[in-house]
Design a protein that fits this description.
single chain, about 220 residues, alpha+beta, Dihydrodipicolinate Reductase, domain 2, nine-stranded mixed sheet, 5 helices, about 30% helix, globular
Length: about 220
């Protein structure tokens, strides 16, 4: 897709709607502005009960599986929060009687004493949660990737003090489409380059490779 879009000068963007909510920018500013100190751990979870046996997400031929559907958000968010690519990954998955991963747990090693972890599933209660832990503070928030049109909150714990951040109601899908339109109509630069989408897939491919080998560590060549 990337090669075809470049060959024919067609705009191609990845539809990660969560990145267009103003909450994303505020959280990135908190983390990358050093308010948590040096990052040590990032933990993300994303799951729901998939009960329709004919759902396309249960088809390997259609790109199904929990990593492709849910884990892609966790991997993308963690990579963007850290600001560079992981050096190695490790994963375990459960397929049951299907031909896709119904459940996956993965760990990304970014070096510099920073490990991130995610748990995604089609066979667990609906939930989304992220916790970012640094040497000086902990930032946690629910509905990490799809808060819908509801207001949401995040909590920053530093020592004995907790600060609450409130985020307004927004339609992240609408803001994403508006940005796409502006890039097409006004030649505005895309916020996220295609290289980010490619690098995200490189990490996910390595996670699949690890899961297929019963959790062996898979090393990556960083593509910063």
């Amino acid at each position: 897709m990337v090669a075809t879009s470049l060959e024919h000068s067609v705009l191609l963007m990845e539809a990660f709607m969560y990145r267009y909510h103003s909450r994303f920018e505020e959280i990135m500013e908190i983390v990358q502005g050093g308010r948590l100190g040096q990052l040590r751990f990032i933990q993300s979870t994303f799951s729901f009960q998939l009960t329709n046996p004919n759902d396309y997400r249960l088809s390997a031929d259609l790109g199904g599986g929990a990593l492709y559907d849910l884990g892609c958000y966790c991997v993308n968010f963690q990579r963007l929060l850290v600001g560079h690519e992981p050096r190695q990954v490790q994963a375990l998955s459960y397929m049951g009687s299907t031909n896709v991963d119904l459940q996956m747990s993965g760990t990304l090693d970014f070096g510099e004493q920073l490990f991130t972890h995610f748990d995604v599933a089609f066979n667990a209660a609906p939930q989304q949660y992220t916790r970012i832990i640094g040497t000086e503070g902990v930032l946690s928030f629910e509905k990490s990737f799809n808060p819908g049109k509801e207001a949401s909150e995040a909590y920053l714990l530093k020592g004995s003090e907790t600060k609450r951040f409130k985020f307004k109601r927004e339609d992240a899908y609408q803001k994403m489409v508006e940005h796409f339109y502006n890039v097409v109509a006004s030649k505005e630069a895309p916020r996220f380059p295609l290289s980010d989408a490619v690098n995200n897939l490189v990490v996910m491919d390595a996670l699949f490779q690890s899961a297929a080998s019963d959790g062996n560590i898979v090393k990556l060549i960083a593509a910063d």
